[in-house]
Specification:
By secondary structure, this protein is of the alpha/beta class. It has a domain at about 45-155 and about 220-289: Alpha/Beta hydrolase fold, catalytic domain (Rossmann fold), CATH 3.40.50.1820. It is about 45% helix and about 20% strand. The protein has helices at about 5-35, 40-45, 60-70, 85-95, 110-120, 140-145, 185-195, 200-210, 215-220, 245-255, 270, 275-289; strands at about 45-50, 75, 105-110, 125-135, 165-170, 180-185, 215, 235-240, 260-265. The strands form 2 sheets. Strands 2-1-3-4-8-9 form a 6-stranded parallel beta sheet, with helices on both faces. A 3-stranded antiparallel beta sheet has the order 5-6-7. Helix 3 (about 60-70) crosses helix 12 and helix 4 crosses helix 5. The radius of gyration is 27 Å and the shape is globular.
Length: about 290
């Protein structure tokens, strides 16, 4: 009995040493795993904010959002009120303040005018991406830019008080005054917005669920120094755009010194070719990362 106690003590000591070593190894492994998931590159990966324009909604970004998410990006697509350029930009500017870290800000159509104003002065916005979008200078309106070059199918009568492809729907505003909402006429939607590139049934569904923009928003001049003067920008020109004339898109892209890509697509190119749009966004993200 007397010679067994030392052996027992030795076994206990060995077991304790092994246990401590194992615990230290697990702690080191856990630390390594944690470090792997919190590398500086991962922390800095930008959030992509997708901003829709008139006659569409955030669901139009679904194809783009899925691809970006599959590539590891955090994506958000807030609803644009479409009530007025100044108020819409203020809404987005406040929304952007809730996002920590770098942001790639993407706008389609009227959404481009919104991001142009909302990003000004926000150091987190690292790149602007315009997808067949308006990029106004201070003092310019959407109506000014559409009318700058021929080619838009929004109207076949330049003297018409309301573009002939649109329905003007009056409504009562909160203060009791009358506002006007503009919708694309259902029988014009496939041509104007999609250049007849999708089926009649899909175009009809999109026309039925379109969100209108106010006449005020279309005519309101951009009031701030445009963000594209200080933030790097990318621009996708849709060669078959029948809403914004492609010549106007080239003009805006050139003026902003944007990295420009041109593809054969309609105004709603994010719906018909989400792969190309995603590629442009990721190019902006990796270039500014």
């Amino acid at each position: 009995m007397s010679h067994r106690r030392p052996v027992r003590r030795i076994r206990i000591a060995v077991a304790t040493a092994v246990g401590l070593a194992l615990a230290a190894g697990l702690a080191t492994t856990a630390s390594a795993i944690q470090d792997h998931h919190t590398t500086p590159a991962d922390k800095a990966k930008p959030t992509v904010v997708l901003v829709h324009g008139a006659w569409a909604d955030a669901a139009g970004w679904t194809g783009v959002a899925k691809r970006l998410q599959a590539d590891g990006y955090t994506v958000t697509a807030p609803a644009t009120p479409l009530r007025g350029l100044g108020s819409d930009a203020a809404y987005l500017a406040d929304y952007l303040k809730t996002i920590n870290g770098p942001v790639i800000l993407v706008g389609h159509s009227y959404g481009g005018a919104v991001i142009t104003n909302a990003a000004t002065g926000n150091p987190n916005v690292k790149a602007l991406v315009y997808v067949a979008a308006f990029a106004p200078d201070k003092g310019e309106s959407i109506a000014d830019l559409v009318g700058k070059y021929p080619g838009s199918h929004l109207s076949d009568d330049p003297n018409a008080p309301v573009p002939t492809a649109l329905n003007a729907v009056p409504f009562t505003q909160a203060d009791g005054s009358t506002g006007v909402d503009l919708y694309i006429k259902p029988d014009k939607y496939r041509d104007v917005f999609l250049s007849n590139r999708v089926s009649n049934s899909k175009a009809a569904a999109l026309a039925a669920t379109q969100r209108p923009v106010t006449a005020q928003a279309v005519g309101e001049p951009s009031a701030t120094t445009p963000a594209w003067k200080t933030i790097p920008s990318w621009y996708l020109v849709a060669r078959d755009d029948r809403t914004i004339p492609p010549a106007a898109e080239h003009f805006m892209a050139s003026r902003a010194h944007a990295h420009t890509t041109e593809i054969d697509g309609p105004h709603a190119v994010h719906l018909t070719d989400p792969k190309a749009v995603t590629r442009l966004i990721e190019n902006a993200a990796t270039t500014t990362h």
